[in-house]
Amino acid sequence: MMGWWAEWQARLRKVWAIYGVRPFQIRQVARSIEHISGPLDVTIGPDELAVFCLLRDGELYVHSFMRHYLALGAKHIFLLDNGSTDRTLELARQYSQVTILRSRLPFRTHKMALRHYLIRRFAAPNRWALYVDVDELFDYPYSDVVPLPDFLGYLRRYGYTAVVAYMLDMFSDGPLAQLDSDIEDDLPGKYRFYDLSDVVKMDYYFPRNELPTPEIKAYFGGIRRTLFAPEELRFVLTKHPLFLQDGRLQPLFVDEHFARGAQVADVTAVLYHYKFLADFAERTRRAIREENYHTRSEDYKKYWAKLQQAPDLSLVRPSARELGHVNELAAQNFLYVSPRYSRWAIRRP
Length: 349
What we know:
Helix content is 36%, strand content 19%. By secondary structure, it is of the alpha/beta class.
């Protein structure tokens, strides 16, 4: 009985947070917004992409983030800064295809409202949007031969409104304590290793979405599970970052991993995740101090405990591989690619 009661209370709190608290907080965010730079009205075409990101103190990521998404073919990037004290804003303003806003409301209490404000304000109806963190670089199978507008056109042609993407932790081949990071670093070039050996695949559990095949799964774990919590099923790797604002889909429904009302595509994507930079220990300490992530930054407490035990920690294991191209992730069954998408991508004129 207590288990049932606790579960019911948790569901009630979640419903209240989504439908009661969140709308009020979004209005608070709207009143707090400062326009730093860039256009506020940007026209996005049917097969063009707008990228959205909430960030703070991301100077080590900004150049790689901007260069990656502009090279990918994004039409415009919308950044909402949450009170950076480093060079994040200075660096981001160097790019013309970016709009920068700022809100100093606390991340711990307003993180979802901040994200939702950004999307509701700038994601146009019936247009594609990509919500990512500043340490995440999105890529999709056959991106070397399929330009982004064609990829988005394929999704629209077959009625898909969201793409599942899996976070893949990228790391260097040296100990964390010996890393040296610089704002000019090319993150994809510097952090080239990954490890799929501890990725746990489970049945897709996100409700009210339509899957094209049961072969698309929900992923957990990865190298962070191997190193920081080998006995636990944690570190959710599944997200729905790319979505079409069709009026039915609800992006970032519970948190940044969820979407609701989605027609999920028959091809999955990757979010290269660059958490393990030289500032990993400092970011971990701050997350623990502020307790502003899931369950009061519990994951970060596990990171810190391991760093205390093994200050010379290296992420490279015998199962680690050096990344060559996104398509190898499909060949290793980390990404799902339908036969139809493969035929279409290969036979394109």
